[in-house]
């Protein structure tokens, strides 16, 4: 049988369901034929059915999910081979590719299209952008013989939760340093949102006040814990805030190759003019903007920053790019817009209402801390500068963070829908 590697039509012969075990035959290392049996109820002998199924797809180990949690060699896209260093491996932790679909955001300027890249669907416990960085970071940790991971972030850090899950998947211990307010730093942090997942998977949680964090800094704090663990005979591996170092940046360089492939092989004939995303520690926009520049995408990357100011991020992203010997100026490849509002992880009622309106209008739930603020900022910018966005095809990257919404339930309570005590009359028969 000769097939195009991308679209292959082949037949699946009969198999016994009693065995419930598919038999796979690799062909050209890419294609699999699957045999099925089924049991006859009237006959104790397995009976072959000659049912056959048309499958229009290339079935690979990847598509079947068998490569999840395995270490794989990494080959960069041809346009990224000059970057240095290139990671040799990654762990398959995310469910990729994430879908892309058109998103009917209300009140768009004339002829503007918004499409959504659903990185919020990259995997439930690992949801969002963090898992893409962790694919590379965890491979490095394992290669270095680490037996535990240390990382740091805010009390509802999605990155810390994703790291805690990834570490447990790979049988590593995880130590999280979580920043919280002085008033509650000596109390049990509870189980809201990301904390529930972190504590369920057994992460060690160390609390630090915002003041101490500001004074000491994240690098010194993680180093301090690293020293302590080394003295106890452990082999810790430190991941910085948000997983945003040059190695983590490969996560979104790889994501650009994924988008490129989706556009080249998909049925939608679309070229994106812009990529829009939230920015919290800089790694995502570093990978996206460098990848978009080097690949065939050439879309302009706009980042809505939810903490610190744009100048801080231009400098930070520059450091990440320099760490890959990219030879480009961050200020030329990404447009960073301040969307911090009242402050990191602090929402106005208007922002939360916006999250609610978008969910009600499109079914897509934005997290309040990152994508919620970014899309709020984007629609505000569209309303103020419609000419800038008119007729553009925009790809918004939804970076996940749903669990952070549970931290806002009190604020959202009054915004969400009605409920009724069901009216059951005597006339309804029991
Ligand atoms: C849900 C979510 N979206 C976006 C971001 C921002 O990504 P980055 O930290 O790479 O800038 C983060 C983390 O900071 C996040 O948790």
Automatic annotation (TrEMBL):
<dbReference type="InterPro" id="IPR036052">
    <property type="entry name" value="TrpB-like_PALP_sf"/>
</dbReference>
<dbReference type="Pfam" id="PF00291">
    <property type="entry name" value="PALP"/>
</dbReference>
<dbReference type="InterPro" id="IPR005966">
    <property type="entry name" value="D-Cys_desShydrase"/>
</dbReference>
<dbReference type="GO" id="GO:0019148">
    <property type="term" value="F:D-cysteine desulfhydrase activity"/>
</dbReference>
<dbReference type="GO" id="GO:0005739">
    <property type="term" value="C:mitochondrion"/>
</dbReference>
<keyword id="KW-0663">Pyridoxal phosphate</keyword>
<protein>
    <submittedName>
        <fullName>Bifunctional D-cysteine desulfhydrase/1-aminocyclopropane-1-carboxylate deaminase, mitochondrial</fullName>
    </submittedName>
</protein>
<feature type="domain" description="Tryptophan synthase beta chain-like PALP">
    <location>
        <begin position="93"/>
        <end position="400"/>
    </location>
</feature>
<dbReference type="InterPro" id="IPR027278">
    <property type="entry name" value="ACCD_DCysDesulf"/>
</dbReference>
<dbReference type="InterPro" id="IPR001926">
    <property type="entry name" value="TrpB-like_PALP"/>
</dbReference>
<comment type="similarity">
    <text>Belongs to the ACC deaminase/D-cysteine desulfhydrase family.</text>
</comment>
């Amino acid at each position: 049988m000769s097939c195009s590697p991308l679209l292959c039509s082949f037949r699946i012969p009969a198999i016994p369901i009693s065995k419930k075990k598919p038999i796979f035959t690799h062909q050209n290392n890419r294609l699999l034929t699957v045999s099925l049996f089924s049991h006859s109820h009237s006959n104790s002998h397995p009976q072959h059915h000659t049912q056959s199924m048309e499958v229009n797809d290339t079935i690979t180990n990847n598509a079947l999910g068998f490569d999840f949690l395995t270490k794989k060699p990494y080959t960069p896209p041809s346009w990224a081979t000059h970057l240095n260093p290139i990671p040799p491996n990654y762990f398959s932790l995310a469910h990729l590719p994430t879908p892309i679909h058109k998103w009917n955001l209300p009140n768009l300027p004339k002829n503007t299209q918004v499409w959504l890249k659903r990185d919020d669907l990259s995997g439930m416990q690992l949801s969002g952008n963090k898992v893409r960085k962790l694919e590379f970071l965890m491979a490095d940790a394992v290669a270095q013989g680490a037996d535990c991971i240390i990382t740091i972030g805010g009390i509802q850090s999605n990155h810390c939760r994703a790291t805690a899950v990834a570490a447990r998947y790979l049988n590593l211990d995880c130590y999280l340093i979580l920043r919280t307010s002085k008033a509650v730093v000596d109390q049990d942090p509870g189980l809201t949102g990301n904390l529930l997942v972190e504590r369920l998977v057994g992460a060690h949680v160390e609390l630090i006040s915002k003041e101490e964090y500001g004074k000491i800094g994240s690098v010194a704090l993680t180093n301090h814990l690293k020293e302590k663990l080394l003295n106890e005979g452990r082999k810790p591996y430190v991941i910085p805030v948000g997983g945003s170092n040059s190695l983590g940046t490969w996560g979104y360089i790889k994501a650009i190759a994924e988008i490129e492939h989706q556009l080249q092989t998909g049925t939608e004939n679309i070229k994106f003019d812009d990529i829009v995303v939230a920015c919290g520690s800089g790694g995502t926009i570093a990978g996206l903007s460098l990848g978009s520049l080097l690949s065939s995408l050439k879309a302009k990357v706009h980042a809505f920053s939810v903490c610190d100011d744009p100048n801080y991020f231009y400098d930070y992203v520059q450091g990440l790019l320099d760490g890959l010997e990219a030879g480009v100026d961050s200020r030329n490849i990404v447009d960073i817009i301040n969307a911090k509002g009242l402050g990191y992880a602090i929402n106005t009622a208007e922002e939360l209402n916006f999250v609610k309106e978008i969910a009600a209008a499109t079914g897509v739930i934005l997290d309040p801390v990152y994508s919620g603020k970014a899309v709020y900022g984007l629609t505000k910018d569209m309303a103020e500068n419609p000419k800038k966005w008119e007729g553009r095809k925009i790809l918004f990257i939804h970076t996940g963070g749903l669990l952070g919404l549970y931290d806002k339930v009190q604020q959202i309570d009054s915004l969400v829908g009605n409920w009724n005590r069901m009216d059951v009359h005597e006339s309804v028969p029991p």
